[in-house]
Amino acid sequence: MVSELQFLPFALPEIGDEEIAAVAQALQSGWVTTGPQTKFFEQRFTEYLGGNVESLAVNSATAGLHLALEALGVGPGDEVITTTLTFTATAEVVRYLGADPVFVDIDSSTLNIDIDQIRSSITPRTKVIMPVHYGGLTCDMTAILRLAKDHNLKVVEDAAHALPSTWKGQLVGTLESDATVFSFYANKTMTTGEGGMVVTKQPEIAKRMRVMRLHGMNRDAFDRFVSKTPAWYYEVIAPGFKYNLTDIAAALGIEQLKKLSGFLEKRQVLANRYNELLDELPLILPPMPTGNDVHAWHLYVIRLDASVKKSRDNVIQGLSNLGIGTSVHYVPLHRHPYWRDRYSLTNEMFPCADSAYRSMLSIPLYTKMTFGDQDRVIAALREVLR
Ligand SMILES: *Cc1c(COP(=O)(O)O)cnc(C)c1O
């Protein structure tokens, strides 16, 4: 059991002195809610993606997904096709709008949504395809965008894992989707505590999301503060939401974004090292991108080979006994009571995701990990799988 050695957590954010100073400055500035820091964060995010998009900061990726679908006109009677191997937020926003998610299985080799099954799930009610770049590996966006075009569907990318990931050399967020949503939750590739960014190339979609982000008001508090027309005047044009990001969080985000390429490099080094050092264990290692595409390495997901006699749950327990934190991404949505019962889903309907789920675990991968930490994970896996 673990004695002197500390428990190695599954994930940890990396917050430096720069972030702490920036947050302190935001607190001292007198403007703590959405204001100049948020505007600057959005500008910097757009620059990071190469300039050709509008970025809207929100208080979670869940909020961003909701805003994107709302702006695309998703409502009762509509269907949104997505993967069963995702976090419930991907699908719950569809229900917020009274529409129905349609779950499809994954491709066992990539763990991403199965393109052929998207095609066979399209009905006259289908409005949106919502791919999830699982773990940071980009879905086949060429195929998804072509399918959407052929059937006159919209595409909203759940890119909560994919900052930064590329498809055929292009950053996720700059492809021809209708909107792309990133998460800055504590364990994502950069964090604002809670927060997200929704990006789009379409001015009309951006405009609607901006209004709905703040109560359906046509001017936000900062606009009113800096404008020459009466500061007290605004008009409500829709029953909107309260999804704006604070300047405190944005100040943190600005500093994290500066470090993002360094964070990526660290994740790549650790992932490559896992790939090498876990190679001879009875494991299926994470799928790699085709060509030279960038994998964000939000998660490092391993699957137990069929030859392993222990169950996944036993392996997780064994690692925990040795002081190693792990997680499972995800209990697929078809196994959760709400989704299973509402849409009469069975495990047999999703053989690939279900089998992946039964053999998978995510092992620690984060920028604060040392090679020593990583060696502990590898040694523990060796021992548990022996
Ligand atoms: C983290 C996550 C979300 C939700 O992000 P929040 O910022 O916590 O709302 C959505 N989808 C996926 C796939 C995620 O991993």
State the gist of this model.
The protein has helices spanning 17-29, 36-48, 61-71, 88-96, 115-121, 141-151, 203-213, 221-226, 247-258, 260-277, 312-321, 337-342, 351-359, 371-385, and strands at 54-58, 79-83, 100-104, 126-130, 154-158, 166-167, 170-171, 179-183, 196-200, 283-284, 300-304, 360-363. It is of the alpha/beta class.
Give structural notes.
- The structure is a single chain.
- The model has no long low-confidence stretch (mean pLDDT 96).
- The protein has 2 domains: 17-258, Aspartate Aminotransferase, domain 2, CATH 3.40.640; 260-385, Aspartate Aminotransferase, domain 1.
- The protein has a 7-stranded mixed beta sheet, sandwiched between helices. A 3-stranded antiparallel beta sheet has the order 10-11-12. A two-stranded antiparallel sheet has the order 6-7.
- The longest helix has 18 residues, at 260-277.
- The protein has helices spanning 17-29, 36-48, 61-71, 88-96, 115-121, 141-151, 203-213, 221-226, 247-258, 260-277, 312-321, 337-342, 351-359, 371-385; strands spanning 54-58, 79-83, 100-104, 126-130, 154-158, 166-167, 170-171, 179-183, 196-200, 283-284, 300-304, 360-363.
- The protein has 386 residues and is an alpha/beta fold.
- 45% of the residues are buried.
- It binds pyridoxal-5'-phosphate.
- Pyridoxal-5'-phosphate (PLP) binds at residues 60-62, 86-87, 89-90, 132, 158, 160-161, 183, 185, 196.
